[in-house]
Amino acid sequence: MSQLKGFNSMFRLDGKVALVTGGSRGLGLHAATAFLLAGAKLVIISARKNAGEEGIDQAVEKLNKLGVSGKAIGIAANVADTDDIQRLVGEVKKHSDTLDILVCNAGATWGGPFEPTPDSSSKKVLDLNVRGVFNLARLFTPLLEKSGTPQDPSRIIIVSSTAGITVPHVGDHGTIMYSVSKAAAHHMSRQLAVELGPRNITTNTVAPGFFPSKLARGLIDILGGEQELSDANPRKRLGEPEDIAGVMVYLASRAASYVNGEDISVDGGVRFAQGRQSKL
Ligand SMILES: NC(=O)c1ccc[n+]([C@@H]2O[C@H](COP(=O)([O-])OP(=O)(O)OC[C@H]3O[C@@H](n4cnc5c(N)ncnc54)[C@H](OP(=O)(O)O)[C@@H]3O)[C@@H](O)[C@H]2O)c1
């Protein structure tokens, strides 16, 4: 038998403070929910809109009804805008002078035919998915560095996409700049792993396949709908909230302390099936 120190708390997040961008709905809200259920003391969610069915306020209300001791708060910010990220840092500091977990999840997509691509669409996608993620990591590093230790470093988790690994959509509904932005996110996590690892901050990437959400809805419909995409997936379904929850809690927990610069795809393995010759 080997001595595994603190195994019972290895997958727990007790006492941790997390910030999840794009936490008002979709994958970000799944991650925020999981962090609170795993014991986090404070989960801060951020998005642009406070009000409405998909705004921050309704999400905070739901999170604070989970029946756990941890609390959720919301802070509106546009994380494609560097000044607003700087303001977000200041707002977070009013609640906590350290940060254990930063999830750079807010993302934008754009699809359309190649030649007429408006330049504004590339700017929108790159500003949020690449420049925004870089500036979040850069500007939150002082807070992350304060809480990281050699045995339990602080975590940056970047939400990318399997579109950053494969070439999933070309032609009328091509998503070239989205794919490129997500490939950049993968490499950013490798760069940050080496840059920030010595400062007790690890960085990893989660690359989801299709999860029903506002962002994915249009593309799922264009590709034939949830049933058709499920049939084509080796696991015979699309992603579910628990699939994101599991990988997020793992990467944020002490269990992943020595994992740095990796990307974990959460797609049921479908990216490997794309070149197959026959239907499964
Ligand atoms: N769902 C999928 O199938 C899938 C697959 C692969 C990768 N992903 C990635 O997963 C991440 C989350 O996507 P999702 O599917 O959960 O999307 P979603 O349901 O549309 O949620 C997007 C979230 O980001 C926020 N947001 C958007 N632009 C923002 C900005 N400029 N500043 C701050 N917050 C912003 C939105 O709130 P506001 O609109 O109020 O700002 C919302 O909270 C994205 O990075 C996406 O690329 C998703």
Automatic annotation (TrEMBL):
This is NAD(P)-binding protein. Signal peptide: none annotated. It comes from Lophiotrema nucula. Pfam families: adh_short_C2 (PF13561). GO terms for molecular function: oxidoreductase activity. Belongs to the short-chain dehydrogenases/reductases (SDR) family. The keyword Transcription does not apply. Keywords: NADP, Oxidoreductase.
